[in-house]
Write a structure and sequence with these properties.
Order of helices and strands of chain B: EHEHE
Helix content of chain B: 25-40%
Strand order of the largest sheet of chain A: 7-9-6-10-8-11-12
CATH topology of chain B: Mth169, Chain: A
Number of helices of chain B: 2
Structural class of chain A: alpha+beta
Number of domains of chain B: 1
CATH architecture of chain B: 2-Layer Sandwich
Distance between the termini of chain A: 49 Å
Largest sheet of chain A: 7 strands, mixed
Chains: A alpha+beta (about 650), B alpha+beta (about 80), C alpha/beta (about 200)
CATH topology of one domain in chain A: Phosphoribosyl-aminoimidazole Synthetase, Chain A, domain 2
Helix content of chain A: 25-40%
Radius of gyration of chain B: 17 Å
Number of strands of chain A: 27
Largest interface: A-C, 36 and 32 residues
Oligomer: heterotrimer
Radius of gyration of chain A: 26 Å
C-alpha cells in the first residue's frame, strides 16, 4: 500500500494533485496534502455552493464574519465538533469551544458570548445519557473557565442521533473596526507561534473528521483542551493584536501549523519558510510531519515586523501571561511554501496548489415529498407534546453553563428563549439564538428555522441582522445527501437575499454516518439580532387575568413594525412567536415560567411555526384577536382542562428524573 | 543527584460528605453487588523529584503535599509508594 | 475612596467587578497577584473566575501569591475591607483568611442560577455560578462572631445554608454569589446594591 493510500487520499484525488504539481509529491508533502486536501480543511464537496449568500462586506473570508454597530464589529461564527464528540465527548466538546473562540479571537475581537446547539439520541438509551453528561460537562468546564458566558442554546433529542451526537458551538466577539487584524501575511515578516507546546495529540484530526466514523476510531485523533492556558492566551492575544508591529493573526485549528501558515501565505500572496526545529514541542521525538499536522490546542500564529523591538514587545506580553512562544519562520515575496528541519529542505510547493484542492460538483434534483397527515384529537396531541422530551425544560443542561460572567447578560436562557447581551461600547443590545428544524423536505426545514428565528427575535424587540450556520449532513458522496445539501443551501441563500440578512460565516460537517446509521439533514442557524432602542425591551411579569391575543401576520415586515410599536409603547407585557409545538406549546412554556395557566379558545393549537404572534397584555389591543386569558392553576383550551401543577411538574422535572 | 518517584493520593476526610463516593455506593447497591460499603474518592499525583538523598526528598514531598496538594481542614494525603529511579 | 481588584492569572470577573466598584463610587485600580503595596486601598477585591485554572483545587494555587501576604498585613491595620467573590471567597478560605472550606457541589455539577439570599433581615436575589461552592465548617462556634449570608433554598449542600460570611472583627467579606452581575447590567440592577451599599456603610 502506498503512503497516500494509507493517509486516505483517494486515487482520484492523488491523480489531481500530481497533475497540478506536475510531479509526484514526496512523502512529507503527501502528509501535507492528506490534511489540506481533506474535506475538513478543503471544503471540497461544499465550497462551490456556500460562497454566494447575501453579504455586506462582512469579512466573510476571514476566520469569522461580522455585523456592524456604530464603529464596532460584532464577529461571530458557529462550528461543528461532531466527530471528536462521538468518540471522546468530554475532550471533544471542550476543544469545540476552544476552537470556535479562536475564530473570533484571531481577528482581535474579544469573545463575549457563547451558545450551542446540541443534538442527542433518545433519552431511553444509556449511551445518550453518557453523551449528555460528558458533552455538557466539557462545555461547562471549558466555557466557564475561560470566562465567556453561554447565554443561549438549543437541545434536541431524536433517535437518529443515537450514535452520532451533533455538537455545534457559536462564539460572538466585539472589536472596534479600526483595530481588526486580518489573516493575510505580509512580505518580509517573521512568523511567531504562541501558546501551548506542540504535541502528538489530535494528530490527523482533519482527515479523521473527513471520513465516515468507524467504531474503532482512535482516540488519539482527539485534542486535549486546557482552558487555563486558553484564558491566558485570549488575554495575551487581545493585547498582542494591539501592537502595530503585528501584521496578521491566525488561529491554529484543523491541521495546526500547516493550515494556518499556508493560509496566511495564500491569502497574503507571499512565500512562507518554516524551520521546524524552532517550534516549541511537548516531546523531542516528535517527527516533522507530526509538528506540521498536530492539532494541539491553545496555539495562535502571528506575522510580525522583522525587528528586535517588535519581538521585545511581543516577548513582554507573552511573559506577562506565562506563555511560551517561538519564532518559527519568515515570509518573502513569492508563492512558495517551504519547510526546513535542521537545515534540510523537506518540501517546496506552490502554496496555491496546497490551498486549492479539487472541488467536487454536487447533484441537485428537486424532490417531491409526500405530505403526512395524522389524525389525532387535540387531547392526544397535548399529551404527546407534554411527554415529548423535546418539549421539557432543558434547565438541567443550561444550568451548568455560566450565563453571566463579564456582566453583560441582561437575559439568559434562565428567563428567555433568546440570550440578550448589553453592549456598553455601542449602548445597544444583541439578541442571540440557535435554531434547527427538521422536515422531510430540507427546504422547508431551512425555511422554518430561518423564519422562526426571525420572528422570535422580533418578539423580543430585535431585528435579525446576521446569520452563521452549521450544515450537518451525512456522506456527500451519496447522491441524496448531495441533493439535500444543495436544496438546503439554496433556500438559505434565497431567504438571506429576501430579508437582506448577511450570512457572515459558516461551517460544513459531512460524513455524519456510522455503519448503516446516518443523520438527517441538520441545518443549524446562529442568528444575531440587534436592538438599539432600550425602550423596546420589556421586563414585566405576567399576571392572572392578563389577556391573550393573536396578532395575525400577513406580512413579516409589517408585523415586525406593529410589534416594535406595541413594545415601545408598553402596550404588551410579552410577545411570543410560535415554535415547534404550536400555539399551545409556546404559550404554555411562557406561563409555566411564571407559575400560571391559561384559558383559551381558538384553532390550530398545535400547528408548528405559524406566522402569527401571541400577545399577552393587561390592555386592549386593536386589530388583534382576543383568544383568552391568564388563569391561576388550570390549562384550558376548548373542552380540555388540565391541572397546571401536574403539567408544571412534568415540564420542569421530567428530564432531570430521566437522567438519574 | 538521585531521582525519586513518589505516588501520592489525597482524599476528603471520612467525616465529610463525599457525593462522588455516594454515587458509586448507590450504583453498587442498585446493581445488588453489595449493600454494605463506604466509598471515598480522591486524587492521585505522581511526582518525580531530584535530590541529594531520600531524607531531603521526603521533607520536600511532605511540604508539597501539606501545603499545595491538600487543604488540611477537609483533606488528607498519603504517600503510597516511593521508588528511586 | 480607592479600591483595587486583584487580577490573578485566570481570574475572569475583573472588568465587571471594576465597573461595579466605579458605579458604587470608588476609584479603582486593577493590580496583579504580585503586588504587595496595598497602602492606598480601603477596599481590596478578590474577584471571581478560575485563578490558575483551579487546577489542583479552587483557589489553592492563588493563595501562594505575594498579594496574599500583603492582604494579611493589611487586615491587621483595620482600615480596609477585603471582599472575596466566588473564586475570591475560595482563595480567602484556602489562605485561612476566612474560616471554612468550599467543597464540590452536592450534585457534582456546575450550578449557574439565581438564588434567594438573606442577609441582615434583607432578602434579595443574586446569581451563583460555581462548581465548588458547598461551604464546609467543622465547628459552627468558630464563626459565631461572623455575620452570615444565607441561602433561602440551599442549592449546593452548603453547611448551615451559608452562602457567604462577614468577619466583622477583621473586616473580611466572602461570598459565593456574584453581586457584580446584578448591579451594572440593564434589566439586572438590583441584588448587588445590597452588598455594595453594605460595604460602603462599613467603610464609613
Amino acid at each position: 500500500m502506498k503512503l497516500y493510500q494509507r493517509l486516505n487520499i483517494s486515487d482520484f484525488l492523488y491523480q489531481k494533485i500530481v497533475e497540478k504539481l506536475k510531479r509526484e509529491p514526496n512523502d512529507f508533502e503527501t502528509y501535507l496534502f492528506s490534511a489540506m486536501h481533506s474535506e475538513h480543511c478543503g471544503y471540497m464537496h461544499s465550497k462551490k455552493y456556500i460562497n454566494d449568500f447575501y453579504k455586506e462586506n462582512n469579512y466573510e473570508n476571514e476566520n469569522s464574519g461580522c455585523i456592524r454597530i456604530k464603529d464596532y464589529c460584532i464577529f461571530f461564527k458557529m462550528e461543528s465538533h461532531n466527530h471528536p464528540c462521538a468518540i471522546e465527548p468530554y475532550q471533544g466538546s471542550m476543544t469545540g469551544i476552544g476552537g470556535i473562540v479562536r475564530d473570533v479571537l484571531s481577528l482581535g475581537a474579544k469573545p463575549i458570548a457563547l451558545s450551542n446547539s446540541l443534538k442527542f439520541g433518545s433519552l431511553d438509551k444509556l449511551k445518550t445519557k453518557y453523551y449528555i453528561d460528558e458533552i455538557t460537562r466539557g462545555i461547562s468546564d471549558y466555557g466557564n473557565s475561560i470566562g465567556v458566558p453561554t447565554i443561549t442554546g438549543e437541545t434536541i433529542f431524536d433517535k437518529r442521533f443515537n450514535n452520532l451526537p451533533i455538537v455545534n458551538v457559536l462564539t460572538l466577539g466585539i472589536i472596534k473596526e479600526e483595530d481588526i487584524k486580518l489573516s493575510s501575511a505580509k512580505e518580509d515578516n517573521l512568523i511567531v507561534l504562541l501558546g501551548s507546546k506542540t504535541g502528538v495529540d489530535g494528530l490527523n484530526g482533519a482527515s479523521f473528521a473527513s471520513g465516515v466514523l468507524d467504531e474503532n476510531a482512535s482516540r488519539q485523533s482527539v485534542q486535549i483542551g486546557d482552558p487555563y492556558t486558553k484564558k491566558r492566551l485570549i488575554d495575551a492575544v487581545l493585547e498582542i493584536n494591539k501592537l502595530k508591529e503585528i501584521t496578521a493573526c491566525q488561529d491554529l485549528g484543523a491541521s495546526g501549523i500547516l493550515s494556518s501558515t499556508s493560509e496566511m501565505a495564500y491569502k497574503g500572496n507571499c512565500t512562507v519558510e518554516l524551520y521546524l526545529e524552532k517550534v516549541h514541542t511537548q516531546i523531542d521525538s516528535i517527527k516533522p510531519e507530526e509538528i506540521m499536522l498536530s492539532e494541539s490546542q491553545e496555539r495562535m500564529a502571528f506575522t510580525i515586523e522583522n525587528n528586535v523591538k517588535a519581538i521585545e514587545k511581543f516577548d513582554k506580553i507573552a511573559k506577562k501571561y506565562e506563555l511560551d512562544y517561538s519564532v518559527i519562520g519568515k515570509t518573502q515575496k513569492g508563492h512558495d511554501y517551504k519547510v526546513y528541519y535542521n537545515n534540510k529542505l523537506l518540501c517546496s510547493l506552490d502554496v496555491r496548489v496546497l490551498c486549492e484542492p479539487y472541488l467536487f460538483d454536487l447533484e441537485k434534483k428537486e424532490i417531491k415529498t409526500p405530505q403526512l397527515f395524522t389524525k389525532k384529537s387535540s387531547l392526544e396531541k397535548f399529551l404527546s407534546m407534554i411527554n415529548d422530551d423535546n418539549f421539557s425544560s432543558k434547565e438541567f443542561i443550561y444550568s451548568q453553563f455560566d450565563q453571566e460572567v463579564q456582566g453583560r447578560t441582561s437575559f439568559s436562557q434562565k428567563e428567555n428563549s433568546i440570550g440578550i447581551l448589553y453592549l456598553k461600547e455601542t449602548e445597544s443590545f444583541i439578541g442571540l439564538l440557535n435554531q434547527t428544524t427538521f422536515d422531510i423536505n430540507p427546504k422547508k426545514a431551512v425555511y422554518n428555522a430561518f423564519m422562526s428565528s426571525y420572528r422570535k427575535l422580533v418578539s423580543f424587540g430585535f431585528e435579525l441582522k446576521g446569520i452563521t450556520n452549521c450544515l450537518n449532513f451525512a456522506n456527500p458522496e451519496n447522491l441524496s445527501v448531495q441533493s439535500d445539501f444543495r436544496i438546503a443551501v439554496d433556500e438559505l441563500k434565497r431567504l438571506s437575499f429576501l430579508y437582506k440578512v448577511p450570512v457572515v460565516s459558516g461551517n460544513v460537517s459531512f460524513y455524519n454516518e456510522i455503519k448503516d446509521e446516518k443523520i438527517p439533514p441538520a441545518v443549524t442557524l446562529g442568528c444575531v439580532g440587534v436592538c438599539e432602542n432600550k425602550n423596546r425591551i420589556i421586563k414585566s411579569k405576567i399576571n392572572k387575568n392578563d389577556k391573550i391575543y393573536i396578532l395575525k401576520n400577513h406580512d413579516e415586515i409589517k408585523s415586525k413594525e406593529i410589534i416594535f410599536n406595541l413594545l415601545e409603547n408598553k402596550k404588551v407585557k410579552k410577545v411570543i412567536s410560535i415554535g415547534q409545538f404550536g400555539l399551545i406549546g409556546s404559550l404554555l412554556k411562557e406561563t409555566l415560567f411564571y407559575n400560571l395557566g391559561f384559558k383559551i379558545s381558538y384553532k390550530n393549537y398545535f400547528e408548528p411555526y405559524q406566522k402569527d404572534y401571541i400577545l399577552i397584555t393587561a390592555n386592549e389591543i386593536e386589530n388583534a384577536i382576543l383568544i383568552g386569558e391568564i388563569v391561576d392553576d388550570k390549562i384550558i383550551f376548548d373542552n380540555n382542562t388540565f391541572e397546571k401543577e401536574k403539567i408544571k411538574n412534568i415540564y420542569f422535572n421530567k428530564l432531570t428524573e430521566k437522567m438519574k | 543527584m538521585k531521582i525519586f518517584v513518589y505516588k501520592i493520593i489525597t482524599k476528603l476526610k471520612e467525616e465529610i460528605k463525599n457525593p462522588q463516593g455516594e454515587v458509586v455506593e448507590n450504583i453498587v447497591k442498585r446493581l445488588s453487588v453489595s449493600s454494605n460499603l463506604k466509598v471515598n474518592t480522591g486524587k492521585f499525583y505522581e511526582i518525580k523529584i531530584s535530590d541529594e538523598s531520600r531524607i531531603e526528598a521526603d521533607k520536600k514531598i511532605e511540604k508539597i503535599s501539606k501545603e499545595i496538594l491538600i487543604n488540611p481542614l477537609i483533606e488528607t494525603f498519603e504517600i503510597i509508594n516511593v521508588e528511586e529511579l | 475612596m480607592k479600591a483595587c481588584v486583584i487580577n490573578f492569572l485566570g481570574s475572569n470577573c475583573v472588568i465587571e467587578t471594576k465597573d461595579s466598584l466605579l458605579k458604587a463610587g470608588f476609584s479603582v485600580d486593577i493590580i496583579n497577584q504580585n503586588e504587595t503595596n496595598l497602602a492606598d486601598y480601603s477596599l481590596i477585591v478578590l474577584p471571581g473566575g478560575f485563578s490558575y485554572g483551579d487546577y489542583v483545587s479552587c483557589g489553592r494555587i492563588a493563595k501562594f501569591s505575594p498579594v496574599i501576604g500583603a492582604i494579611k498585613e493589611k487586615i491587621k491595620q483595620k482600615n480596609s475591607i477585603i471582599l472575596g467573590i466566588c473564586n475570591g471567597f475560595q482563595i480567602l478560605c484556602e489562605a485561612n483568611i476566612l474560616y471554612g472550606a468550599l467543597l464540590e457541589n452536592e450534585n457534582q455539577k456546575f450550578i449557574s442560577k439565581d438564588v434567594d439570599l438573606i442577609f441582615k433581615d434583607k432578602t434579595f436575589k443574586l446569581p451563583i455560578a460555581h462548581h465548588q461552592g458547598r461551604y464546609y465548617i467543622d465547628d459552627i462556634n468558630k464563626i459565631k462572631d461572623y455575620e452570615l449570608i444565607k441561602y433561602k433554598n440551599n442549592p449546593n449542600g452548603s453547611y448551615y445554608d451559608i452562602a457567604g460570611l462577614y468577619d466583622k472583627k477583621n473586616k473580611v467579606l466572602g461570598l459565593m454569589p456574584h453581586p457584580e452581575r446584578n448591579y451594572i447590567t440593564p434589566f439586572k440592577e438590583e441584588g448587588g446594591k445590597i452588598i455594595f451599599d453594605f460595604i460602603k456603610e462599613e467603610l464609613r
